[in-house]
Structures are given as structure tokens and as C-alpha cells.
Amino acid sequence: MLINNPFAALSIPSGVMQMYVVLMILLVIGGTLLDIKHKRSAEYFFQNSKKAQANAKKKAGSGKKVGLAVKTVAGEVLTSSEFCNVRRRQSHLLTMYGFIIFVVTSAILIFSYTGGDASSPILLNMLWHIGAIMLCVGGYWFWFKIRVDVAAEGVKWNQFNGRGDFFILGLLSMATFGLIWSFFQGIGVTVLSVLFFALFIASTTMLFGTVYWSKFAHMFFKPAAAYQKKVAMADGSRENLPDDYDLSSPEVQAKFPDIPEYLGANPPNMGLGIKREAPQHY
């Protein structure tokens, strides 16, 4: 099963399948734009950026910004470093990279290797199946193990939280039905192959057609917000947060005379605070 191209044996014309892929891309773009308009995300980022520039204490040069962009891509995007919980991070990375591999290889197979006489590289066929398996492992791990954990969300596995679950359910059903369809097609069970192919298409349509209501669009906002936060720390605007001070410094105590009054001339170490206990959530 792993070395077969499930799209090659379809009786559907290649042009129809390619038009479907283009339609899904348009649905993602349209849903994301509608989400931006509804939540006014772009307006918020623009206004916040202008406010940060007005409050900046120093200028972050282009080289610095490029470095921060690279750091954001390497941290928040490629390695999901914002997740403190190791299990949640591993689950997210499996799901994310599985989704990317699955979608990219699907597009390549549909646009380049469809039709009864098509012969696609074995490695490409294997990557399609491996991507789906990774997506299933990461997604089901989250749904049945992490999501139900009280330290994370504490939501029962059979509880559907409305529109917010469209994304994960769409991912899981798409990958699951895709693998089952490929299996039955590989062993020649036509009726079940057609059934699960129809379910695969329905799940894919649900995933990409509900972008406006799902969490799909947040994958574009999260890196932008992380980058903007890094720039705000670099230029000193700090998102209107107070500066970090050494409370035992005479200059700081002169600037804030009430420090010695309330904390003494040598303020004690206040401890780790919220960092005293390792985070159990994600």
C-alpha cells in the first residue's frame, strides 16, 4: 500500500482533480481573508505596530529585524518552541509536518502523476502515506491523550466543542479516510475503495471549506504576532510593559523613592514567582 499512488488508478479526469485542488486553495485564501476581516486582525497588527514605533526607545535596524524574522521562523514556526509542554509540542510537530507532507505530495501526485499510465516515484508515494500516518499519530495523540488531560483542557474525547474542533476533526478524518481508501484500492476492493474515497473528499472539503470558522487561519497570525513581539522588545517599546529594573540599584531607587520605603534599602529576592513550578499546560 505504501508504494502505490492512489490517485493514478482513479477514473476521474486529471483536470477535474486539479480543479478541485485549485478550489481548495481558493477556499483557504477566501476563508482566511474573511477571518481577517471579521476579527480585524490585520487592522490590529497595523495599529499595534504604529503604536510600538511611537513608543520605541531605539531603532531596530533592518539586519536586526531580519535576524528576528529568522529566529521567529526557526522557533515559533519550525520547532513550535512556544509550547512548554513537551507532549503537546511533539504532537503538534507530528501533526504539522504530517499535514505539510501530505498536502504537498497530494498536489504533486495530482498535477503530475494521474491517469492509468502514470508512474510516480516510489519515494513520493511513500511520503504521501507517511505524511498521513504522521498526521494521524499527532492528531489522535492530541485528541485522545492530551486534550482529555485535566492539566491541558480536560475535555472528554467524545465532546465536540462546536466550530473550534472543525480543524482537528477535518485533519483526522482526511488523513484516516485517505489511508483507508488507499488500502482498499491497493487490495482491489472497489466498493469500499469508492466509499472511503468519497469520505476522503468530503473530509477534505470540510477542512478547507470551514477555514472561516476553524483555527486554520491562526497559523498565519501566530508567527506574525511572535515576530511583532520580538521587534517590540528589541526597540524598547515593550508593548507598553514597564522596563525590567534592578530594585537594589541606587539609580532605580532614586527614580522610584517608594522602593526603600516598602522593600528596604536592599530589596529581597522575590523568588521564581510563576516559574517556581514547571508548567503542566501547553
Explain this structure to me?
- It is built from ten helices and no strands.
- It is mainly α and 282 residues long.
- It has two domains: 14-233, no CATH class; 245-276, no CATH class.
- The chain is elongated, with a radius of gyration of 25 Å.
- The mean pLDDT is 83.
List the defining traits of the structure above.
mainly alpha; single chain; 2 domains; elongated; 282 residues
Which spans have pLDDT < 50 for at least 5 consecutive residues? Answer: none
Radius of gyration: 25 Å
Shape: elongated
Q: How many independent structural domains?
A: 2
Structural class: mainly alpha
Major beta-sheet overview: none
Count of runs of 4 or more consecutive helical residues? 10
Which bin fits the share of residues in helices? 55-70%
The protein's oligomeric status is single chain
Query: How are helices and strands ordered from N to C?
Result: HHHHHHHHHH
Strands, total number: 0
Distance between the termini: 36 Å
Outline of this structure?
The protein is mainly alpha-helical and about 280 residues long. The protein has helices at about 15-40, 40-55, 60-75, 85-110, 120-145, 165-185, 190-210, 220-235, 250-255, 260-265.
